[in-house]
């Protein structure tokens, strides 16, 4: 993996780009952030250890699922679902079990999944670190009840991925002898894809977990250096931070030029938004896909408000290709493409978009990977996680908590009738009564 950030710099964007001396002005913040990472200032920096964990238990359980099941259903939300979805979209082998990810509480979606699968041929992976995630608990309860009513043994159809020691899901796993995997205590959901949260799914779909971790370990080494110009994660975070504080560019668009990486943009959005959006600070992530969104959003990016940075992901080798036939040569618009390949075209699309933005004075950077494989995906995961933690530290905030999300969870539980939240339930009732602005 490499990053070209030329089109972020003043040399190309004139008075709207970053100068090398701008990076020097934040050297103290970079040094302090690096020291906090090195000294594990937050216990949640435990995610840095994931590339070096043993995966034998995960592979053993993955083999059990592959031998037993035709269908594999993940019950989880947020980081418990977004990471596995990236793995399925980018790496899934066609011969592996069919995988469904139920990451909401939309009853219609669950109904469609249940109509498609056969319960006796299905293993459900219940993923919740705390064991108290409302959406996951609700879907788990429905599945448990269905298994019981169908005469199936839950312990033969469930795997629980949760905290190693505490929480209600750990209690259920122990009490009912359910197969389980531990999420390391210091690893929070949005940083958990390289833990059993994502690695079990990888094993089930035919991807060797160690290959993901090898890619992550390689990136880890490169991103452990204090020197900002030698550290891809630090240069990435520093440039986006500077674009915010100097030019008020608060929107970061991640645009991979591969359909199979579309969900990577969605995974990045949770990681970036939930980690950085605190205390009136933060950067707004936006998912996009090239070349599709050139035809729907590029006009805005070039001539709309100058409040965005575009982050391209370029793929050198797609692993397959198609040559465009040399036909209709009498039509010049067709003749232009004949004899070229689709990979030539999509790479030209990416580069031309970056050039068009640069000519308009709009910044972009390009992350290039050689191919889409387990190693490169593992590397991208770990790169973005380190970059996110570092950027949060630059802003002076805790990149691992999510205090604002807890308020919504409390109101939800109050609406569900939680005994010790009667005051909040009454508050909801009064607000509903006053909310009459409706057409």
Poorly predicted parts:
none
Cα-based radius of gyration, to the nearest Å: 24 Å
Please list the strands of the largest sheet in the order they lie side by side.
1-10-9-7-8
Overall geometry comes to: globular
What is the percentage of strand-forming residues? 5-15%
Q: How much helix, percentage-wise, in residues? A: 40-55%
Number of strands: 10
The rounded distance between the terminal residues' Cα atoms is 52 Å
Q: What name does the CATH topology of the largest domain carry?
A: Rossmann fold
Structural class: alpha/beta
Tally of helical runs: 18
- The CATH homology group name of the largest domain: Glucose-6-phosphate isomerase like protein, domain 1
Using the coordinates above, name the CATH class of the largest domain: Alpha Beta
Average the pLDDT over all residues and give the rounded result.
95
Q: How many structural units, i.e. domains?
A: 2
Give me the CATH architecture of the largest domain, please. Answer: 3-Layer(aba) Sandwich
Largest sheet: 5 strands, mixed
Order of helices and strands: EHHHHEHEHEHEHEHHHEHEHEHHEHHH
